[in-house]
Each structure stands twice: as C-alpha cells, then as structure tokens.
Amino acid sequence: MKITFIIPLKDDSESCHSLISSIAIQDQTLIERIIVVENGSRKFEPRELKALLSVHQLPEGNRSRARNFGMALATTEYLAFVDADVILPHGWLRGLLSHFDSETLAIQGPVIPTSCHESFLHRLRKERGRLLGAGNLSLARSQECVLNSAAFITTKRVLQMMGGFDERLSRFEDSDLTFRMLGIPGKLKGIRSVSCEVYFSGNMWDYLTREFSRGYAVVRLHEKWSPGGKLVATKSLLKNLLHWPLLFRTARNRYTIMLTILKLVFYFGNMAGLIRMFFNPFEGRKEFRGLRARVEIL
After folding, report:
1. Which of 11, 187, 193 is nearest to 89 (CA)?
2. pLDDT (tens digit, 9 = 90+) per residue, 154-207?
3. Which residues pair with 257 in a beta bridge?
4. Are the CB atoms for 268 and 215 separated by under 8 Å?
5. What backbone torsions phi and psi does residue 37 show, to the nearest 5 degrees?
6. In sequence order, what are the residues at sequence separation of 6 or more whose Cβ sits closer than 8 angstroms to the Cβ of residue 145?
7. What's this model's pTM, rounded to 2 decimal places?
8. Phi and psi at residue 265, in whole multiples of 5°?
9. I need a surface site. Which of 30, 91, 176, 279 has the fewest CB within 10 A?
10. Which residues contact 149 (CB under 8 A, 6 or more apart)?
11. Measured between alpha carbons, how far is residue 157 from residues 105, 276, 283 in Å?
C-alpha cells in the first residue's frame, strides 16, 4: 500500500517546512510521493525528503483547484490531502491506513487548532477551537458527518467518481465533498485517537478576510444543496441578524469580544454572498435524496 501526499500552499512556506518534517517521521515505506502545489505563493524550496517531493506552480485558482491538480499528478490509489499549516504526529499515517478497507470512502482523525507561540491571535485560535470543537468529522445532522480537508485520506477512485473538489467553492469545499460521498455506498470513518494539529500563522487582517470569505461561501453551499437555496440563505441571514444583540451579551473578555467581531464579519460575508446569488446563480444544484454511505466513528 503506497500513498501520495498532496499539499496546497499559498504564502506559508515556514509552516510547510514544519509539515514536511512531520511527514518525515511517518512510516516512509508507505509514502510514494509528496506533491506541493503552489497556488499563487512564492517558490517553495524543500529542506527534507527532496527525493520524494515535487513542487508545482498553479498561477491561478483556489485550494480546490490545487488539490485537483495534485490528484491528477498522483500515480497511487491512496491520497492524503494535508494543508500546509498542519502538523502530523508520529504514527498518524499508519494509524489511519490501518482502518482503511475496501468499503472506506474517506478517513480522518481530529484536526485540533493549537498555538505555536503565545501571541494573542494564536491564543484566540486555540480558544475558538475550545469553544467550537476540534473538528473530528463534525456532526452536521443526526447521521451525517463533515470531513475536514485540512488532513484526511481518501482514494483516487472515489474522488474521480465524485468529480474531484468543486472549484467554484472557495470554502466549505470539504462539506460539499462529504455531501456527495454520502450519496454513494461505502463508509466514512473518523478515528478519535489519531489527531493532528493545525497552526494559523496569519495576522488580524487574515482573520477578518477569512471570516468574510467563509460567510460568503456558506451561502453558495446553501444554494447548491438546498431545494430552495435563495430562500434558505435569506432566512439564515435574517436569523443571524436577529442574533447580533445576543452576541454582544456573551462578550466577557478580549477573546470573546474578538470572536464576536469575527462573527459579525461572517454575517457581512453572508450578505455579499446573498447579493451575488441573485445576480450570478449557482449552476448544477444538488439535493439530498437519502444517505447511502455509513458513518463510523472509531
């Protein structure tokens, strides 16, 4: 069994070096190749695993396009998609692959936000993870789960069957992929004991733009998957607007105040997405027609 690592990279070379170091402590007999796809970043110069690693430039496109580009280059059946700001502990790769069988569609363990040093922004990231959960196949509904594309394993066959990542979604592309996987026979697996850590090395502006893009993209996700996409997105936005006063009541310290500000920026992204929805409708809308994949949390 051999696997290819696919890493989308955009202006985070130091974190990517840390990721490569964490891949170097995995079982090397399982690794065929490491593909780094730079989508708009500076040239990445690897320090380790140079014999296994190749760097490719993708001048335009988001991380979904970068992942699809990497998938097309991969020659192995098993694929590990890992973001550049993730650190994999010893045994992560073998721990996940040991639970992979012929029915498995995708598998992952918890992705835990953490801080690499004690700055306010990194502690904020950690506090947010504590409040919102660590992201182990986050339960979306009673029987569904949502993969976290920051670190998971799947197969080339499954992804090709799904048509790859939807490049029209700037965010929540992993939720969209999960919804499509849930429509085919097989199993989605989450392994509680095989966790990894994710570091966010951005500044305050990066946090704000990230939340705006998340708010914008979730409207597109609603439009793609909800029977009445415009109505659902509008109702969701109005509900959020009514909750604004409640947000400020929960602001107790500088962390919760900042998280409240980020939530408001998220709502502004909702508004922008809703406006675009009416002028630029999403092509190829989908609907849930019952689950066929099974969810297995180990």
Report:
1. 193
2. 999 999 998 999 988 888 898 889 888 888 889 988 888 888 888 766 677 877
3. none
4. yes
5. -110, 110
6. 137, 138, 139, 178, 188, 190, 295, 297
7. 0.83
8. -60, -40
9. 279
10. 63, 67, 81, 83, 165, 173, 174, 177
11. 9, 34, 25
